């Protein structure tokens, strides 16, 4: 599948094809497919193959491995948004009887006497549950799922490796449990729910649990010789929510567009934004390079914040990455167990488009209406001696920005009761209130008990602790 010539400039398309060709050659993979999404639409795709004149296109299926987890996470967040569960709920509230009680592991300090059922849904989504990385028994990705048909076979003692909520530890069994949770609450097999709730509404007609022609075969390439061996294409059974799906570059391009913009019939853009916030580790404002949200991987690459997921199964590698700021996404699929650096290739495809054809910003437009009372709140406020500027934004929103020195800024959403709720930064989730004098004049702002006044330490605002009677002094 090749996009119309007018979608991207010829130089951009040439640079994209060159990066894909280098990735296939240096990665020593039998084939490699890439696709780019801009503005929610597939604008470029191409393939490279070891077979001359037989390059795969965007309709050829590849196994996508752990990208499957992004589908599971969306299913869980749909249930949350419907009020069927809370992310803070323990697993056994909705999936009773899963996993025996876990004693403390004397080597790792894990468990702390809590059962697997006490782990929260949020911890499972963000890989902070402390569960083991893999299920017991033979290598699950290369053996039939019929060897572990029950949940108790997926999560056998000892299942917990770290204290819950304390650290990031990637867990495939955790997403097997989340798939079972979806199945239990919907009353249908996980794959059927996936088809009805996500694949059909989004038009992902070539995303399936088992391969459908045309599809690539998976190979392991010898590290020291140009030779390869076929990999088994197993049905992973109960572990399917961790990495079973097959898909195409065209379908994953649609999925990337959904992850970027949302779909009110599937999941809102606000909930997707929640999914891509770091669920553990450093604050998103810190200088981290990789993190994990709720079912989405986060990474900084080429000076950009990207989100999506990587995938690997024996014989296959995959990547879906989105740059929200550039409104560009990339898909890369390979049929080799190891070799091509699909994450770096996908990040480079995004970079090439963003550098060759930078996003044109939306035009500035004035607010459709301005409330004089809100307009009067804008301008200079002080937290103690530190100046901040308050801006009026769309939908009665406010934005607080430090002025000229360090400080804490946040955006605030207007609420029906006349308050505002912080959306990001230090004040995320905190309440902003305008405190007024008896004549209605705004005396000060109260943000989570912090007082902001029009002048530094305004004594008329009733500052906690008061102001030194000597006032401002020169020494």
Task: Provide an overview of this structure.
The chain is of the alpha+beta class and 475 residues long. Helices cover 24% and strands 21% of the residues. It is built from 11 helices and 19 strands. It has helices at 10-27, 68-81, 121-125, 151-154, 172-186, 190-202, 240-243, 249-261, 269-275, 342-356, 372-375; strands at 31-38, 41-49, 62-63, 219-221, 228-230, 246-247, 290-292, 297-301, 304-313, 316-323, 328-334, 379-383, 386-392, 398-402, 410-414, 420-422, 431-436, 442-447, 450-453. It has an 8-stranded antiparallel beta barrel with strand order 12-13-14-15-16-17-18-19.
Short description:
By secondary structure, the protein is α+β, with helices and mostly antiparallel strands. It is built from eleven helices and 19 strands.
Distinctive features:
475 residues, alpha+beta, eight-stranded antiparallel β-barrel, seven-stranded antiparallel β-sheet, disordered N terminus
Instruction: Name the overall outline.
Output: globular
Question: Can you summarize the main beta sheet?
Answer: 8 strands, antiparallel, barrel
Question: Which class best fits the helix and strand makeup?
Answer: alpha+beta
Strands of the largest sheet, in order across it?
12-13-14-15-16-17-18-19
Cα Rg: 26 Å
**What's the number of helices?**
11
